[in-house]
Amino acid sequence: MARHRPQRLASPAPSFSLLLHLLGIASFGYNFYFLTTWETPFTHAYGWHFQFLTIIGLAAALVCFTLGALADLMRSPGFFHAKNAVSVLATPLEVVISVLYWGIRANDPELLVQDGFELPFLEDVGFHLAPVVFLTLDLILLSPPWTMPAYGTMALSTVLAFGYWYWVELCFAKNGWYTYPLFGVLSTPQRVLLFVFSAALVTVSSSILKWIYASVSGYDEARRPHKPLKKME
């Protein structure tokens, strides 16, 4: 079972790697199933539940772990590299989603959820904590070190942040209400600052994740260039 030099466990491989990816797929898949059974104003609104950044991040996590499971089953370097490429943005994004959600929720839950549509506790954890736990474990134990520099992460996260802002405003124009009540409280300049701040948080979280990876794997090992994974027998 092959792995990059700093990588802690074998992956892709039909072992712990496959188990973790299948558990993640089951968790993320259940969350999407729950959305199809949960009757809310978003069920029939323009954009469905994909108006929420949480659901966009969940979809990225599901894609990431599906690619990982395919890599494990087929011993495919191609799927493995694709999984890692998605993880570079999906993992720090989930960190930011979790930090912002639980931080704002502790202060004022009404800024996040329309009154009367609070998630049950287990589903709340499934949406806002489980993805970051699964993705972080995949990064630390089953992935090579990230090579994207901080300025690259900042540029990509800024593009996606303002892309999401455009999507939020489009859904508002169609539905007549904002996805998160917080957006209705803020002025346009304040919303701009919020999205810029969120993009910066993604960059910071990416740097912190790199530091954690290096701490677990060993700084010297994690900083050495890794060789491309060759096709396994």
Key features?
233 residues; mainly alpha; 9 helices
Topology:
Blueprint: H1 16-37, H2 53-74, H3 77-107, H4 121-128, H5 130-142, H6 150-175, H7 181-185, H8 188-217, H9 219-223
Helix pairs in contact: 1-2, 1-5, 2-3, 3-5, 3-8, 6-8
Task: Summarize the structure in words.
By secondary structure, this protein is an all-alpha fold. The chain has one domain. Helix content is 70%, strand content 0%. Helix 3 runs antiparallel to helix 5 and helix 3 packs across helix 8. The radius of gyration is 19 Å and the shape is globular. 33% of the residues are buried. The model has no long low-confidence stretch (mean pLDDT 89). It is found in: Endomembrane system. Keywords: Membrane, Transmembrane, Transmembrane helix. It holds the Pfam family Far-17a_AIG1. This is Membrane protein.
